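Pair request: fold both.
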Amino acid sequence: MDKLPKIGIPVIIIVIILIIAFAKSAVTIGSGEAGVLYRTFGGGVVTDEPPLGEGFHLIAPWNDVIVYEVRQQELFEKMKVLSSNGLEIQIDASAWYEPVYNDLGNLHQSLGENYLQRVIQPAIRSAARSVVGRYTPEQLYSSKRDAIQDEIYTETKKILEEQYVQLNEVLVRDVTLPNTIKDAIERKLKQEQESLEYEFRLVTAAKEAEKVIIEAQGKADANRILSASLTDKILQDKGIEATIKLAESPNSKVIVIGSGEKGLPIILGNQ
């Protein structure tokens, strides 16, 4: 009975050590995550192997695993930048990004877990300053928002391609101008719209006037052609035809009096 405690203490110590070792060796990677393995006695960060994927893993207890989120993530930035004429513009933009999965070890070794602040934020800010500086406030306010969005994306992507980060999209959500500049632009756009509307009315009126002139000319030409075709012989024949129709009417009493060699008969009388 006296020997049992002496034997039990080392066993308990060994069990505790095994439990601690197992706890240090067991690593669970969650959904949408990946782990970078750090070998304490084997060269440090593992960069020549794929990262540890989702699920349960056993590693040597003296090694370590750094877990990264590998889903697409969003960075929202409010940036104050200068336009081409030196006016301060506020840009609200979002960047969708994710670490390059197979380069996760390189990312950890070169940039670390705060890679967002180290490379992504500076990259998008630099690209926004460069792009917005090419445009005037009028262009930014009206027609160039899609263009600056595409250009910011292109320039940011170039910077991040060598930083083990994948940029998926840049969205410019809002462009805010100083109120005085915004009001001046809106007044200018309104005046331009009114000017275009006035020009449209002038063009429409000119076309209507041209249409009336063409129609009148057509009628005049038709009457001139008709007059030229009505000879005395045709008119005499038409008159004779009309006289015959009147004479054939049962309700008329007809007296025909000649009016000359080529004259038409004269119809007199009624019931």
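--- second member of the pair ---
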Amino acid sequence: MVHLLVVDDEKEVGTFLSRLFTMKGYLVQVVNSGKEFHEIDWNQQRFDVAMIDLKLPDCDGLSLLQHLKQLQPRCKVLIMTGYSTVKTAVDAMKLGASDYMEKPFVDIEVLERQIDNLLNENEALNQHFIHKLAEDSGLIVGESPLMKNLIEMAFKVAQKSVNVLIEGETGSGKEVLSRFLHIASPRNHEPFIGINCGAISESLLESELFGHEKGAFTGATQLRKGFFEIAGNGTLFLDEIADASPAIQVKLLRVLETREFMRVGSSVTLRTNARLVAASNENLQQAVDKNKFREDLFYRLNVVTLDIPPLRSRKEDIPLLVRHLVERNGHGDISFSIEAIEKLQQYNWPGNIRELSNVVMRTLTLADNKSVITANDISLFNSQITPDKNVSPEIQSTENLLEEWRKRLVADFNEKDELMLEEILTEIKQLQSTIGKELVMQALQKTYGNRNEAAKRLQISIRKLRYILNEKSQT
């Protein structure tokens, strides 16, 4: 017989739940306070499932959760919460709760299914299922406890219609995790739409998100649906949300508050049921503190925060990641030697998995039909030792260019009685262009080809970066 514990200070709720689950054949015990909870004879009573209200008059539901999991770790716990405390309910899942349910109970069948699922859950099979979903989305979990905890938490969150904020360093796999959230959710048959807020200008980003009417602006030759509209009941992933302009932040806040928006150039209100997953390699709380990001929007996005660990914190996963990358690139017959793997594990990977992927791809390209990659075959981006550790490589490169130009100019001045000033000024302009391009190339190397990150580090716009590289005209 299933033993169910209900902890709720509302006696009507306790009575209702007792009757509901007694009719299903459960043995139900109801307590209405923390005091009654602690009076239970835990040596005599064993519970299969506990339903705990987060807000009790004499204690915090989280403390009861922790106490219960210490006494009976195999007991499944369902947290009951009001909408305003959903974030706390998510914190409860980090402490061992299996699931949560919002009060008041709108759909009793959903509640019954949640309890049935907890009782029938096979942890080994469930973990295998979760890891298979992760693999299908391109996310390699590996052996790291940090990643295992993250993916299990992400799976639980995926079942809920709450906004999710993913934080992590550049190249750590934020978009891949967002795809896992989509695949693991009930929305997996709906569209998944991703957009990088930092790669698109403000005016274009508004049109991309909300759509526009024909004639709304120059070049708007036909009606276009925005991503909120296209996503429908699916998932909309906003990468680098910290780069969204203040005006876009205001519009996003309105959508999150009302689920309503208008196309550019239209007065017709449309509704969206898309789930929003946002990501940032910048700590949004710090951005709020610096007045770079709206606090009210941050709280709307930050219902659930998932932090992806950097690769340097999960080096035990590098062998599995390398195997995955090798097979993904169609080189399943090539292996990395133990010494090669050890070399990769000794590196700190500032560019995370994206950098590892680049290193593996470059190594395979230059492998010369080898079947085994050795440590000598691997060249790391930042493995070069610079003469002065206090000076960045890009500054040293620039100093070398300037020094060479200065020596040549001094030599010309000493050899000649006259100099052509106009020629020197023209040469200075050419030198400026060369130095600018050199700094951009160094920044791109340092950010492993991420142009948005390179532009941010150089404190220039993407348009300026492309201009320096002679890729497009500056306007």
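Observation on the second member. The chain has four domains: 3-121, 129-307, 311-377, 393-468.
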